[in-house]
Amino acid sequence: MVTMDTENDAQVALRAASAGAAVVREMYGASLARYEKGGGDFATAADIAAEEAVLDVLRAARPDDAVTGEESGATGAAGAGRRWLVDPLCGTLNYAVGTMLVAVNVALRDASAGIVAAASADPFSGEVFWTDGAGAWVRGAEGRDDRLIPSAGSRLVDVNLDPPFPHAPGFRAVELMAAPEFVAGFRPRVVSSTVAVAWVAAGRRAAYITDGGPGLRLDSVHFAAGIALCEAAGCVVTGIDGLPVDRGAGGLVVAADRETHAALLELAAAGA
User: Fold this and answer.
1) CA–CA separation, 227 vs 19, rounded Å?
2) Which of 11, 32, 92, 257 gives 45 a disulfide partner, CB atoms 3.0 to 4.6 angstroms apart?
């Protein structure tokens, strides 16, 4: 029997993400208070409640670790060797209008080893995608773990169209979707939640592309879990310039295989 004293970090991440997902699922469809953040962004009461559920698990299981939550901010020492990154409801706008495309993301960043454990939970399918840093699996609603196997066979590419667009006019995601070279080989999708990043690891998407600033790999509550899943599953993960996402110009290109990744980098470089 696994107890809180014997749980490894991946088990803690999985349990924390599942706790947040249970709250998101329970509050779905209710009339929820909104808390404006500016620039069109907002949180709902479900974001805040789900984050508290995640933090309750982390505080009990790993009381000495630092935490950064999207809604509550950073706690613990600024230079902590271990920091949990929590996005309690990625896809808030989807959720607020009754669209069941969201994720609860939990990742543990070790200062010397990078992301060593992560989980991304889909509250509505009951699936939790998770990694211990070495392998990647999906736990279904029935509790069975299946290894994540990337595949580009669908040719579906999820493109994040949310602003800001720091690489415009050189790169515009919306223009990529309309480029003849893109539509000749791929089919765009817009999920507007990082659950689509986990789908690349699971073989349900050929790739995922987003614009954005640098530092995604190290400290993004939104992307750290999904990137860790994809890396552990064997996907190709870089910024839009082909460099490691924490060292290059920023953005994110996650692809199931090198051929797909190379094709999308070429399109991005062309300013498509």
Assistant:
1) 21
2) 32
Q: Within 13 Å, how many C-alpha atoms sit on residue 57's CB side?
A: 25
With 0-12 CB in 10 A as exposed, 13-18 as middle and 19+ as buried, what is 271?
middle
List the chain pLDDT tens, one digit each, 272 residues: 444 557 999 999 999 999 999 999 999 999 888 888 777 778 999 999 999 999 999 999 999 999 999 999 999 988 889 999 999 999 999 999 999 999 999 999 999 999 999 999 999 999 999 999 999 999 998 899 999 999 999 999 999 988 778 888 888 888 899 899 999 999 999 999 999 999 999 999 999 999 876 556 668 999 999 999 999 999 999 999 899 988 877 889 999 999 999 999 999 887 64
CA 167 distance to own-chain centroid: 21
- If you count them, how many residues does the chain have? 272
For residue 227, give the nearest of 249, 190, 252 by alpha carbon: 252
> Scanning the structure block, which residue is given the tokens 């060797």?
81
Strands annotated E in 18-81: 34-38, 41-44, 66-69, 73-75
Two tokens, residue 127: 């699936």
